[in-house]
Amino acid sequence: AAYNDLAGNIILFRKFQIPSSGLYWLALYSENRVLGTTDYINVKLKKLSREAAKVLVLYLNSIFTIIQVLSLREETRGGWGRFDLVGMWDRVHIPDVASLPDSVLKDGLSLYDVVKKMDVLPLDERLRSMHDTQVNIDLFVAKLLGMEMDKDKLFRVYKAVLKELEILENILRALDEKEHKTTRQVKRSTTTEKAETHTTLDRWMQY
């Protein structure tokens, strides 16, 4: 009963570090419906065709969604963040993919079919290298949104986003260094205390 009531075809990731060498996509599409976990959210399709859902997943992995995620996410530790359905994902602006012209839907499905078969680089590496996979997704989404966008404009957007990711990396690195320093201090303090209070059972034993 829970599967039929709750399972969905779109997966949104809930907890991850951005940037991260293990982060490839923000959202995935599954032909078979799945249930969510503590790490990802499943979205049950409502009045949306599977074809339109695939185009929606392209949008959710575009630079236009990444920018929104960076501004809306609940920061927990530097680049780490929570991406809950309520308060984050439900505030991301989504185009009406259910009403796309047939030509745009066809182009989106063709792109989706190409991308789904590819072994891709992590998200931040795709931006740094201006990889064709990401560029093609973003140019398609720009067209879907009715925006005038070329590669030069897109690369400037990537540069700005990468600068933000660099700041997040620096914050996380500084937090790690602070935690390691605190841990070393605690260990030294504990060792000193143990040295001062060390004794043996002879102190209380009577022979």
Structure description:
This protein is α+β, with helices and mostly antiparallel strands and 207 residues long. The chain is 51% helix and 14% strand. It is built from 7 helices and 6 strands. The strands form 2 sheets. Strands 3-1-4 form a 3-stranded antiparallel beta sheet. The longest helix is centred in the last third of the chain and has 47 residues, at 151-197. It is globular.
Give a summary of the structure in a few sentences.
With 207 residues, this protein is α+β, with helices and mostly antiparallel strands. It contains seven helices and six strands. It has helices at 2-6, 50-60, 63-72, 102-115, 123-128, 132-144, 151-197; strands at 8-13, 15-17, 27-34, 40-43, 74-77, 80-82.
Major sheet description:
3 strands, antiparallel
Low-confidence stretches are 197-207
Sheet with the most strands: spatial strand order:
3-1-4
Proportion of residues in extended strands = 5-15%
Helix share bin: 40-55%
- Structural class, from secondary structure content? alpha+beta
Q: What is the molecular shape? A: globular
Multimer state: single chain
Indicate the radius of gyration in whole angstroms.
24 Å
User: Helical element count?
Assistant: 7
